[in-house]
Amino acid sequence: QVQLVESGGGSVQAGGSLTLSCAISGSRPSVGTYRMGWFRQVLGQEREGVTTINAEGNTMYADSAQGRFTISEDNAQKTLYLLMNNLKPEDTAMYYCAARFGLLNPNLRLDLTAYDIWGLGTQVTVSS
Known about the structure:
Strands 2, 4, 5, 6, 9, 10 and 11 form a 7-stranded mixed β-sheet that branches. The chain starts with a strand and ends with a strand. By secondary structure, the protein is mainly beta. It is built from no helices and 11 strands. 0% of the residues lie in helices and 52% in strands.
């Protein structure tokens, strides 16, 4: 069973940067592929997709993240990263790491239903 644990959140002023990490532990399926992503949620609002990466290294970003955020992974360290630059107050949210492993369609997806493993989240607060 794969488990995800996020870290790296915190408080930063607008224009600053943060790098979130997602530690991946447990046994992955021996066949198939995977997709991983970052999502965020403001209290009282729906969780939204930020960015995703698949096993081929292809990525996709939400419009709000395009040009400011970068998703990457270190397979050796079993870690997923989210580099966030030029942060804005509207980026304030709980950030979640998500994954799905197995026989998947390689299409990049940012809908919640495309993921079935979730971390507990890490809070990011951006002040103006």
